[in-house]
Design brief:
Blueprint lengths: L36 E2 L5 E6 L6 H6 L13 E2 L1 H6 L2 E6 L2 H9 L5 E5 L4 H6 L2 E10 L3 E6 L4 H4 L3 E4 L4 H12 L8 E4 L2 H9 L7 E5 L2 H8 L3 E6 L8 E7 H4 L4 H19 L2 H13 L6 H10 E3 L3 H9 L2 H15 L9 E3 L10 E3 L2 H9 L1
Parallel strand pairs: 2-4, 2-5, 6-15, 8-9, 14-15
Antiparallel strand pairs: 1-3, 5-12, 6-12, 6-13, 7-10, 7-11
Length: 370
Amino acid sequence: MKRMALIGGLFALTATVLMTGCPPAPSGTGGTATGPGKAGKAPKFTLAWSEYPSWSVFGVASEMEPQLINGKAGAMGILEEKWGVDIELQQLDYEPCITSFTSGKSDAVCMTNMDALNPALARKSVAIMPTSTSDGADALIVVGINDLEDLQKHKVRGLDQSVSDYAFYRLLEKNGKDPSKYTFEKLDPGEAAKQMAAKAQGIDAIMVWNPFVLQTLRDRKDSKVLFDSSKLPEEIIDMVVVGDDVLGKQGGKEFACCVAETFYEFSKQLDDKAKREKLLVDLGKKFSSLNAADMAKCCEMTKFYKTPDAGLKLFTDAQFPKTMDMIVKNYTDRKVIDKAPKLGFGATDKAGDAQLRFDPTYMKMVKDKK
């Protein structure tokens, strides 16, 4: 149920290595292109984020010139001014992010679609946008193992009840294999990568995510990827989730729009050749101290939903509810969660009982205002 927090730099690679819902945004409060405006009486909100390529965007956005969002309570970046909200960024490890959101200490959180299931049982939640999808960033790396038949004789190390655990089971299923015939043993991904690099006895198959995928393939020249999440298109989704109670507050809808536009504006600048390398460096500083080249690889393997249209395509696709139903079944069957939350898809919850809803409203609003 977790994408465990990465300890920045601990395993750093070396250099070699809406239509409806959002009222018109208020005018700004006086900030300039080189300094933040004062928040004054603007409604205040919090966004909890942890290190991951598309979530580290928010940390970098608060340090850009000009700042897209200031990230500190009491001051505003240019997009906070546009939407009339004051956003405080809370950088935490991944599990504390989820705990903070579930308990109501954070208004919004960055987490995956499967990790959003359990918190929704305690707090009605609204996924306002996808930020990225794993497209090879989660991988089974092996040494001296030829195929899935051979893999049955070995233990696979990785984090149980996590995205890695889910990806491993799903990839076996997609290859027509019975997951019950395979052994998945709990081991922190950083430790798994470290032990494989050190050629520890018995560590010959690990299910990990970036930066550990890149690191392991570089450290163990005899290692290879047996399969990865590119075979599970748009199943593992990184998102921003907001409390349903927050969206009903004054400025709540503007808060969601501001978060979404921050991500899209950063993505636009990341595609600018003149700005790309510096932004990759800045992202790398907030994601395990990667250099620009390795950060670029991570962004390829963690494909961003760079525009409102890209996010809308996922959330409004007829396949997406089916994907989520499959994930819920996977998690309840394997008892990763005790109970299935009621899912909803669309701008409204007609029955009023959806515990986790995927709402395109705010992406539409940002798109319409551009």
